[in-house]
Amino acid sequence: MKEILTNEVKLNNQDVNTIDRKEFMRQVGIGFGAIMLMNCLQSCGVGGEIPDPNPTTNTKLDFTIDLKTNDYSGLKTKGAFAVVKGQNVIVAHTNNDTWIAVSSKCTHEQTTINYRASSNDFLCPNHGSEFTFIGNVQKGPATSPLSRYNTSYDATNNTLRVFA
Ligand code: FES
């Protein structure tokens, strides 16, 4: 059988460098492997920050909500609560005039929870899990607690800071 692929052939009387099929596939494989490795490293967080799937250890959480805005002015009423946009945090103003904040996603299947002022706890509307005002499970099926955050109310500026 005639050798089809050679290391060097003449094409239109010009020298053209070529590579054989095996070498071509090897180089493509290396390039593809490098791309896949970079994608994997990026998605795994190597070389960057690894997203924290458990906000309990999210020590960077720190934001302030303005209770003068339409989104949060209702929180000034005792017994009211709000899920803070973009933060996965639920804030409640208790009937005792204190402020509480926990992660807003149920630890069972990530449904957004509600606050119950009458019992000062949190209820998941999906399967009925209940959490205490500090986020501990008081009724399943959830088995893991919510993350609890600190709050600091600024009466002068009418703002509420929530932080880990
Ligand atoms: S998602 Fe909350 S109890 Fe199932």
TrEMBL record:
Gene3D superfamilies per the UniProt record, alphabetical: Rieske [2Fe-2S] iron-sulphur domain (2.102.10.10)
Domain of life of the organism encoding this protein: Bacteria
SUPFAM superfamilies: ISP domain
PROSITE patterns reported in the protein's UniProt record: RIESKE
Domain spans labelled Rieske: 67-160
UniProt keyword terms in alphabetical order: 2Fe-2S, Iron, Iron-sulfur, Metal-binding
Protein name per the record: Cytochrome b6-f complex iron-sulfur subunit
Species name: Emticicia aquatica
Source lineage: Bacteria, Pseudomonadati, Bacteroidota, Cytophagia, Cytophagales
